[in-house]
Amino acid sequence: MRAISTVLDVAVFVLLVAAAVGTLVVVDPPAETATSADETAEVVASSTLSVEYELRGSTRRTHGTMGSLLGRGAVADATLRGSAISEMNDGYRETVRSATRQKLVAPERTQLEARWEPYPDAPMQGSLVVGSAPPDGVDVHTATVTVPAPVPESGVVDGSRPTSYEPVAYAVAQAVADGLLPSNRVDASVYRESPTATATSARYRAIASETDVSVDELLTRGNVDAAHSRIVDGLARLFAGDMQREFDSPAEAAAAVQTGEVTIVVRRWDE
Q: Please, which residues have CB within 8 angstroms of residue 85's CB and are 6 or more apart in sequence?
């Protein structure tokens, strides 16, 4: 169950880090009539949600499937080497959790776990969990649905035969930076005043800190493109070293890349 992945535009990505988020409204959800993980997965994949939220005094609206909004929340919660990239997304995440639970037939017997990793066990990853874990001793039914991530596909082709880890890591780093740092498209003259740019500046600095690069001077001068390139280089070095430890070959690493998708695991159980 996949749709075409697209890069979040600047306004939509602010949704992920904005603290003031409004309500979610379901439009024409498919019926969920049984305690079936498969049926719940279908609801997650195809129910259309409209999102209305406040951003610094203005009301904005976006929409997508329940799965896509859960996926955005997972990416918004991304950590790098265990450190949070953004501290401003709790409002969105809690609103999505609450609204999702209200739309499930048996929320007390359902758990949804949305997880994003650019590749398995990467040093950068994010998740959003709705519902409690199943109790011990019950039969748990599971289903999995894959939704587009607000991060582009890396361009790494499954089945390719790269001879080193560096080009694979660089492609992953480029995709991650393009998805998480959309204000590289913001004009430098307004960089420091835009709410979007303010939030993204914090993400630049958080990622720079964990990749041992410096972007402060570049951001102060408004040289966003140079800061973006420096972040890509730092992430690429980090990913390349990690891939060498995690995979037996560059080809195996390339086959594992999944920057453009979020996996949602549905767990259902009986009383």
A: 78, 79, 180, 203, 206, 207
